[in-house]
Structures are given as C-alpha cells and as structure tokens.
Amino acid sequence: QIDSARLWGSIHETAQFGATAKGGVRRLTLSREDKQVRDWFRKACEDAGLEVHVDALGSQFGLRKGRDMSKLPVGIGSHLDTQPTGGKYDGILGTLGALEVIRTLNDAGIETEAPICVVNWTNEEGSRFAPAMMASAAYVGDFTTDDILSRKDAEGTTVGQALDGIGYRGDKPVGFQKLGCFVELHIEQGPILEAEGKTIGVVDSGQGVLWYDGKISGFESHAGSTPMPLRRDALATLSEIVLAMESIATKHGPNAVGTIGEAVIANPSRNVIPGEIAFTMDCRSADGAIMDALDRDLRAAIAEIAARRKVEVKIDLVWRKPPTHFDPKLIAAVENAAKTLGYSSRRITSGAGHDACNLNTIMPAAMVFVPCKDGISHNELEDATQGDCAAGTNVLMHTVLAIAGV
Amino acid sequence: QIDSARLWGSIHETAQFGATAKGGVRRLTLSREDKQVRDWFRKACEDAGLEVHVDALGSQFGLRKGRDMSKLPVGIGSHLDTQPTGGKYDGILGTLGALEVIRTLNDAGIETEAPICVVNWTNEEGSRFAPAMMASAAYVGDFTTDDILSRKDAEGTTVGQALDGIGYRGDKPVGFQKLGCFVELHIEQGPILEAEGKTIGVVDSGQGVLWYDGKISGFESHAGSTPMPLRRDALATLSEIVLAMESIATKHGPNAVGTIGEAVIANPSRNVIPGEIAFTMDCRSADGAIMDALDRDLRAAIAEIAARRKVEVKIDLVWRKPPTHFDPKLIAAVENAAKTLGYSSRRITSGAGHDACNLNTIMPAAMVFVPCKDGISHNELEDATQGDCAAGTNVLMHTVLAIAGV
Ligand SMILES: NC(=O)NCCC(=O)O
Ligand SMILES: NC(=O)NCCC(=O)O
C-alpha cells in the first residue's frame, strides 16, 4: 500500500506553482510556473534515488535500477503542465503517483527485476503549443524533434526558445531512454465512474483526435450604414460553423464530440462588422469511421456556409491522432491489480488524449482511471478524493510490480 | 470655390499619422497618432488665423471672428480619430474640409457677419472608449464631464489618463464655446449616392443607436471527455445570439441593422469548451418604434437561448441615442447650396452616428454627404474622389456663408 497522506501532500504542495484564486492551477507548459514544478520534481526524484535526465524536448526521465539491467524499464508517469484554467489533478496525479510508487518501493526495500522509469512529459495539454501530447508524439516518431522545436505559441515564441527560457532543453536526444511498456494513472475527466460508483477505470481504448486551424475572411464594414443583405460578416459565419459542428457531433453521437475552443476577431470594434477571425476546431471519436465522417460532414457544412455568405473559410488539419486500443495483456494486468486490491472497476474509453495513447503505438501501454467530481476537468473546479487518488496509485504500483517482476 | 488640391493635400498629409500597410489609417482616439494629427491641426488652424482652445475632453475649437461678435458662431467640423482599421476620409474630410473653408475665405478676403468655429471632436468613433460621439454628447449634456473622464478602454486606461498622456486635457470647461448651429461634412459610408450617381447627400435624418455590453457565463470543461448533451458552451450560446440578432434585424429591415463587433473568450484553449465570453451589440434604426422592437425581440431571444442552454447571459444597455431629425431650415440651406453650385443631390438618412446628431438636440444642425467607393467605410479600403470631396466642401462653404451672412 502506498502512503496516501504523502501522495496527497505532494499534490497539494506542487499546486502552489501556478495556484489560481479559484483553487485551480495555471501552469502552461514551459512557463515560469512549469520550471518551478520541474525543479521540485527533479529534486524529489533525486531524493528518491533516481537518476534523472532531460531530453531535447524537456521531458524528465527518472530511472530506478532493476536487478536485470538488460531488461527495458517499465515506464510510468504523466505530465505536470496544465490548461490556462486547469485543475490540481489532470496529469499531476499520474506523475506524482509514479513518484509515490518509487518512494513506497524504497521504503519497503523492494527491488524489481526490470528497472522502472518515472516520466514527466513536456506539453501534454497542447494549450500553448499544438499538438497536445507533443513530447510523447516526438518520442514515438510522429514528429521530428526539429519540427517540434520550431512550433510557435500565440506570441510567436518557439518551443526551442521556451525550453531555453526556463533552462530545460536537455542534453539527451529524444528517444534516448528506451522503455519496455508504459502505464499511466489519470483522473477520468468524465462522469462515468462517479455515476456508477466504481473506483477504478480500466482504460481499454481512447478517442482519436482531429485538430484544425481555421481562418474566416469576410469584409469589415460599418455596423450602422451597411445593410444586412450586403454584409460579409466573419462572426456570423463562425456562428454557423459552431452550430454546424455541434449538430454534426451530436448526429454522430454518443461516440463523437466537437468543440471550437478558440476564436479571435482581428481588430475588433463595436461598430465594425467583423472581417477576419482565426479559430480552432477539435473533433473526436473512438471510432475511426466516425472520425472520417466528422471530417467529411464538417468540410461540407463549412463549404456551404462560406459559399452562401460569400466569405472565404480556410481549414487546415494540423493534427490527426487515430483511436487508441491499449495492449490486452497490460489491460488485464491493470484489471487484475484492481481485483486483487479489492477495488470495484469497469472497462472504460478515454475521452481525452494521453501520452500513453502515443506510447501505445510503439510499445504495450495501458491506463488506470480514478473518478473525478462531476466529471469536471479543464476547469479550476476539477476535484478528486484522497481515497480514490490513493486507490489508483495502489493499482498502478501493483500493475508495475506484476510487469517488472519482484 | 475651395482649393481642391490644397484640401486633397491636407487629407493625404495627415493620413501619414497612423498610416497602415493597406492604405488605411489606424488612429485610435487619444493615441500617439491622434496627438500627432491634433498638433498638425492646431498649427494649421493657427496659421489660418484662428484662435484655438481645447476643452476638458480634448476637443479642439478654432474661432474665426465675425463682424458681429454678439452672434453665436456657426460650427463646422467633424473628427480626426479613426477605427482600428479605418480609412482616410471618415471624419477627416469634415474636419479638414472645415479648415479648407476658412483658408478659402481668408484667401478671398471674405468676412462673415457671424463668427465661424472649426471643431475637432474627441472620440467620435467609440472604438477605444464607449460611447461613440463621446465629446459632443458631453457638450450637449447627455453625460457629465466627470462621467466621461472616468470611462475606461480595454486596458483599463481612463479617458482622463489618456488625455493627460498626450497633453490634451484642455483648460476650458466642456461647453465653453457656445455655437449657434452646426454643419458637418462627411462621406456617406453607404452605397446610395454612388449607386444613383448623385454628388451630394442632403442628410435629413440619422439612425438611432442601441449599444449593449454582454457577458455569457457557461462552464469550462474538457473538449474530449464532455458529452455533447452535458455542455454549457459559451461560444455556442454566443453563436445563437449572433444569428438571432441577424434575423431580428433582417425581419425589421430594411430600416434596421444589428451587429456583434466584439467577442472575447476568457482563457481560450483548443481543448477547453469556452466558459465565459464578453461581447458587444450594436442595433440601429431611424425609427424609434423599430428600435424598441429590436430591443424587445433581442432580449426575448437571448432569454430563451440562455434558459435552453442553461447558461447565464447578462445584457447591459450602455448607450441609447434616439433617431435624429435634422433642422428643416438648415437642411434647406444645404439643399440650396448644392443646387446653386449645380451639383446633383438627394435627401438621405445617415446610417452612421455623427457629432452633428448630438448637437442637433440643442441647436439647429445639418449634414452634407459625398459618395464613397462601394459604400465601404470602417475599412482600410475606404475611398472617395478628389472631385466629390471638393464638391462637398464647396457645399459646406456656401451653406456656412448663407447662415453666417456675408
Ligand atoms: N488528458 C488531457 O486533458 N489531455 C489534454 C489533451 C486532450 O485530450 O485534449
Ligand atoms: N461616422 C461614424 O462612422 N461614426 C462612428 C460612430 C458610429 O456610427 O458607429
């Protein structure tokens, strides 16, 4: 059994780095607050006897030796960055839970056969730089390191500059730390476990993701003197796209969602009809055929709206992540650990993307979910109980022990 | 006849203050560029022999003596501030046209019976600070000077701070310069004169304006893991409001327009459902009953949308300007001047608001319109011909001579 109070203490101690007035965390990737939590995490790993290295994209790897160093390490961990108005658990539970597993094994004097590697992946959230799960995507070869280093945030700062800014451009090449498999603990970020009164979600699959950048070019003109029929209003165009997205996702539901999270009017003014808007779109489904249908329907709807309104709409697909099907053997290991420990559980699909989804494309991976209050995430009100966090961490530890061998 | 080349030269010389790459002007009220054009204008007025004073809200008044100084001056002028992506003529033609009238009278050695006062009103555009036509509204007593001085821009800078920042908080109280009447020359900002091949618009009325500040409070949550039916999406709510506004204005048309020009998502992120949006609304009609209907229909539509989507929407009416009916005698004077000079003309309603609409509430006022290319305004592509600008300025001068007496 892990030390529930110590885990809870770590979660609340690190929540100070970017704490918001509403009890959440604002810790955008590679920000000053991210540096603070990274420094804390490095020291905690070293204090726990791990050998810590940082790769060229800033991901932190803390290695605990195994009896048989010819075996690839079992990877565990998650991320410590948050959304602009994020919570205290998303990513953090999985990273500090991994640290707690190491601390517990140390206290119990348990040596494993295979080594264990704790990881804090850079920019899982994808809020400052696209795509989400950025560093793990480069790790599995979906993008080159140079491509990722050149990605820019809204202010035009590149990933490379941001890494240098906080001193976290590591000296190890991406992929230097080989892993044999990866297990990630996370809050569910959805309402199912809580609603069904289950403690553990055994994640067997994850939704695929489509991310688009969009730009609408209408025509700026005077709000008072431009007759309604002569307008080429970029905001009215966006409004139709938002509602089309909503109805297309609903039509393909329940196994589909669609969101427009960002929309910025260029040079806004009360008495000017908006002429130009930049926006983003996020569509998801656990079913590849539905993802294709979402893409097709959305493009058709946008083309119709643009033509009717005599406005130009450009859509760029900037990221496509296919649905994830986790490794059957690891899924069984998680399920077994939950059972052995006496926790209620159910199989579940992840609505959110996770680094484990990327790793699963080149190695066996799996995930452990615990309930979060009202399914709320990506919100400062995100909440989870100490008991559930401890339960998930226990399942993580017993899964690791089963895979790594004692 | 005014000096067409000199007028054209002034317009293009001052267009350098805030010139944009696309040939427009960005000269927000009380900005550095606004100071530059004000300094230029003060010097030009002084060089033309005018006695220049600045009031507590920064409006510039240049007085040309008349033979009978017991008579109230004939006011002429407009504004020199622009939209964020504005043109070279909106307001500028009326202000520099007024200067050109003075210069022409000087050259011809013409003394008028009543004095003439050239005015550059502060913040006509209303883009940086609400309401539009701010200084002339205070001049006619719609707002106190202190109220206006405390209005804030998006950065939180007050009008008072902005005035001090460019050294244009004048030593004269608002209203110090009494005027007997006011005549304003302006580009039409709509398509009618050009379409009908008319040179002069004799403005007999102006649309009323409703300005609102709105705020939507939904609930931020995860774009991937929040099922469509459980969302309280602020952007989908705004989208319905935008389209409701469009259809309500269209339904009450052709004599009604409605625009949402500003909308800002708080803490936007690609994978977060928008939780909070601040926005503005602008509704207009030349018919007071239609203005009331627009307000009523809009509030009803918003209440229905908010209730259905379980989202809070707050609407504040921040400005209400009733429709304008200009002074019949001054309208006739403008019409007569156009006829005498041999220009084709038609009566016309102003779609935009103007300082003359405010002044009309306490003194006789009127306006002269000239065509602008494709009716485009509040756009960097705004354009007008040298010939039309000169024609309008000639009509202004002859109207002034008829009122002031030679
Ligand atoms: N787990 C999580 O919130 N990931 C962020 C990436 C995404 O799914 O949008
Ligand atoms: N003339 C003009 O563009 N005025 C700005 C105020 C408004 O009508 O919106």
From TrEMBL, chains A, B:
Molecular functions per Gene Ontology: beta-ureidopropionase activity; N-carbamoyl-L-amino-acid hydrolase activity
UniProt keyword rRNA processing, yes or no: no
InterPro entries: Amidase_Cbmase, Bact_exopeptidase_dim_dom, Peptidase_M20, Peptidase_M20_dimer
Keyword annotations of the record: Hydrolase
Hydrolase listed as a keyword: yes
EC number: 3.5.1.6, 3.5.1.87
Residue stretches making up the Peptidase M20 dimerisation domain: 208-307
Pfam family, one: M20_dimer
Segments forming a coiled coil: none
Family the entry assigns: Belongs to the peptidase M20 family.
NCBIfam families tied to this protein: hydantase, PRK09290.1-3, PRK09290.1-5
Protein name per Swiss-Prot or TrEMBL: N-carbamoyl-L-amino-acid hydrolase
Organism: Bradyrhizobium yuanmingense
Lineage: Bacteria, Pseudomonadati, Pseudomonadota, Alphaproteobacteria, Hyphomicrobiales
